[in-house]
């Protein structure tokens, strides 16, 4: 939980209704057109929400910012902290290849985080699909590989992810129309190409997959690592670059990244697009890239911003999705359960934005025999939390902010937490001086 204590871009999209659909996305209106309902108000089975296709991406891909299709369910809801800073997109027939998908969820933070998230949402897929999309048919190797070792498909996609993320961050830095000195966004993305799944993660959003175990029961497998500043490797990198990693006294479990000589921006993740005030002090835009060879046991994938994972476990999320009577409402069902969980678990905190993308891997068939009410009773009984002896509704809870601007940090005495640096090491970088004017406007926001 937590992020900063501190424009729309659509040139690749051809449809003139792009802005209209984005408006619905940010105000969590219903994404389902009235013409998709039957006389009972239910969505017809097997139909795509063609109204949610906002245009064509590179090489003819169908671009969605919301809604649903036979294999996709998307939903986002604004929290209680202001404008919805989450963004999401799905490109179907990505790279001009039928049945190939790109999915992404972007969680903005800082004064202009919503603009940064949408900027990356609209630009990053084009960078990944530019030039020649990697063709699995053109790559051969001696043995079947179901992991990352000596897998040429993974190696090729990993290089492409890292290059595209680097180009994206450089483009963002050079665009003066968007304040990105103290604003940024995380990104959890995937490309599904046949049986090959490549996941690129930047920040603390998450991807999970629902699969079946040896007993044919549904289980959740986490595909990514939440890249928090207190992870050993992330902490060491930030420290070596003279950044500071500390938790505030009132939220001792949330570690944040601070500049060497200023108590800002207090970023609650170790990697992100933007946030250039910290790019010389350990924050990076290099994604962690993962590979999975899909099998018949795999059912669906869920991408979501940290506002969801703060309150729901991986197992709870797959149970909710699997219990949905219609795929079209699966993502919305997950978000509604997350909002409910926020109110029970953190009544003193502001509900965070939530964005969820569900990608189904097979044609629709029943996954669970239990009804939603039974699942809710078994797995999501939040009333038990409220009566727990360890639960205190009056306790001081973090408001879920990703960035703190000019917060007066008290140095921690905990040996496991990074402390301040010596005065000799408190120096400004060339980027720091170059962005002073942008910082001033951001701090005064």
Automatic annotation (TrEMBL):
Residues 17-48 are annotated as: Disordered. SMART domains: PP2Cc (SM00332). SUPFAM superfamilies: PP2C-like. It comes from Solanum tuberosum (Potato). One of its GO terms (biological process) is regulation of intracellular signal transduction. Pfam families: PP2C. One of its GO terms (molecular function) is protein serine/threonine phosphatase activity. This is Protein phosphatase-2c. Residues 71-361 form the PPM-type phosphatase domain. Residues 18-28 have a biased composition (Basic residues).
